[in-house]
Amino acid sequence: MLKRISRSCRPLLAIALALILALAPVSAVWARSGGRIGGGSFRSPTFSAPRSVGPRSAPVYPSYGGGFGFPLVVPFFWGGGGGLLTLLLLIGAGSFLVRSLRSAVSEDGDEGVADPPVTLAQVKVGLLASARQLQKDMNALALEADTQSPEGLSQLLQEVTLGLMRYSDYWAYGHAQAEKLPLSRAESLFYQASLQERSKFSAETLSNRNNQIQQVPQAVLKRAAAGIPDIGEYLVVTLLVAYRGNLGTLPVVKSAADLRQCLLQLASIPAERIVAIEVLWTPQLEGDTLSAEALLTEYPEMRLL
Fold this sequence. Notes:
The protein is an alpha+beta fold. Helices cover about 45% and strands about 20% of the residues. It folds into 2 domains: about 25-45 and about 115-305, no CATH class; about 55-110, no CATH class.
C-alpha cells in the first residue's frame, strides 16, 4: 500500500520541485557562478623523444709526430710507442664524449626520460567580497588571455598572482600544496583536481580553455544579476599549475606572508617549464558572492590567515 502511495506521489513531487526551482530567488540559483581560464597539454612534444641536436665535431688533439686529431692515437698505441700516454688520451677522450652525449640528451635532467617528473601545485585564496574589482579583472583576463602558448600561460600565471597580491589586504583564507609525480600520474591527478573545483560551481558562466571562449549570454547574466542581493562575504580563487622539475617546496600557509611566498614561487616558474595551468574563481558573476558557511563547507582545507 505504501509503495503504491509513494509511486502515485512521484509526479506530484516532481511538479513541486519544479515550482520550487522556478519560484526560487535568483540569488539562490546563481549563488555559485564560476569562471575558468586554462591551457597546456601533458601530451606536449616536450615529453616525447629527446630533442635532436646538430652534429658535433670530434675533439681535436695536438699532433705529436704525425697525423692529426684523434686518429693519431692508433699508430702510437699499436706501434708500441707512448703506450701510457696513449691510454690516458683514450680515457680522456672517452670521458669527454660521454659527458657530451649526456649534455645533448638533457640540459635539466628531465629531457628524454620516458616518464619525467612533474610537480603539481595548488594554491587557493579566499578574499573578502569587498574585493569587487578582482572579479572584473578576472573576467577581463579570461576574454583576453592567450592560453595556447607557453608564453601566454606564463603571462597568465604572472598576472593572476600579481592581481591577487594587489588585493592582499582582503585575504582571509589560504591553502597551498605541491607534489612531485611521474608524468603518467600527474596528468590524471591534475584533471581530477580541476573537475573537483569546477564541481563546486552551480554554473560555469565564463571559460577560456586553449583560446576557446565560452560565456553565458550577457542578457541572461544581467537578468540574473538584477535580483541578487549583496549579502555574500567571500570570493575564492584557485590556481592549479603543473610544471617540469621542482622549484622548491611550497610553505604551509599559516599567514599572509606564507601565502605571498607561495604566489611568488608560482610566478617565478619559467615559461618553458609550464605544462598546464587552470585558474578558477567563484563567484564569477559580478555581485554574486559566497557565504561564510559555503566557503567553509566547500573549502575545508583553507586556513584562516
